[in-house]
Amino acid sequence: MTDASPAPGTRGRPRADETVSAAFEGAPLEAPAGASVAAALISTGRTSWRDSREGAPRGLFCGIGVCFDCIVEIDGESGQRACMVPLRDGMDVRRDRGARGSDGPGDDRDPGAAPDGAKAAGDGAGAAGDAAEDGRSGE
C-alpha cells in the first residue's frame, strides 16, 4: 500500500506539474499552478498591461504588492495587484482601466503630494515659507 499523504512541508501547495488556464483580454493564459497573475503575464512575454494617466506602459515593478504598478481587473473586480494573486483556472484577467483622477489604485499621482496648486511642507508652506520665498525675514 502506498502512502498518499503529501511530502512534509508541501501540504496545500500545488504540484509542480499542474497547470492552470485562464484568459487575459480574451487570449489564453497558462502558468504552473501557484504562479501569480503577474508571473503568468510575464511568462507570455507581456511586460505591461495597463497605462498611466500620461499613457506610459505599466506592468510588474516591485513584485511584492507595494507599488500598484501591476494592477489588473480580475473576474470583474478592478484594482487587483497581479503580483499578489495566484492564477486560478477560469480566471478572467483584463487591463485595469482604473478610476482616473482618484487616489486609489489606477492613479499614478504621488499619494504624499499636495493637491494641484497647493503648497506642501518644504516648498514655502506657511507664513515663514512665504516670507522666505519673497526674500523677507519672516519677522
How would you explain this protein's 3D organization?
The chain is α+β, with helices and mostly antiparallel strands and 139 residues long. The chain has a domain of 90 residues: 2Fe-2S iron-sulphur cluster binding domain, sarcosine oxidase, alpha subunit, N-terminal domain (Ubiquitin-like (UB roll), Roll). Helices cover 12% and strands 21% of the residues. It contains two helices and seven strands, in the order ββαβββββα. The protein has a five-stranded mixed beta sheet with strand order 2-1-7-5-6, covered by helices on one side. The protein has a two-stranded antiparallel sheet with strand order 3-4.
SSE inventory with pairings:
Elements: E1 19-24, E2 27-32, H1 37-43, E3 50-51, E4 57-58, E5 71-74, E6 77-81, E7 92-95, H2 126-134
Parallel strand pairs: 1-7
Antiparallel strand pairs: 1-2, 3-4, 5-6, 5-7
Short description:
This protein has helices at about 35-45, 125-135; strands spanning about 20-25, 25-30, 50, 55-60, 70-75, 75-80, 90-95. With about 140 residues, it is an alpha+beta fold. Strands 2-1-7-5-6 form a 5-stranded mixed beta sheet, with helices on one face. The protein has a two-stranded antiparallel sheet with strand order 3-4.
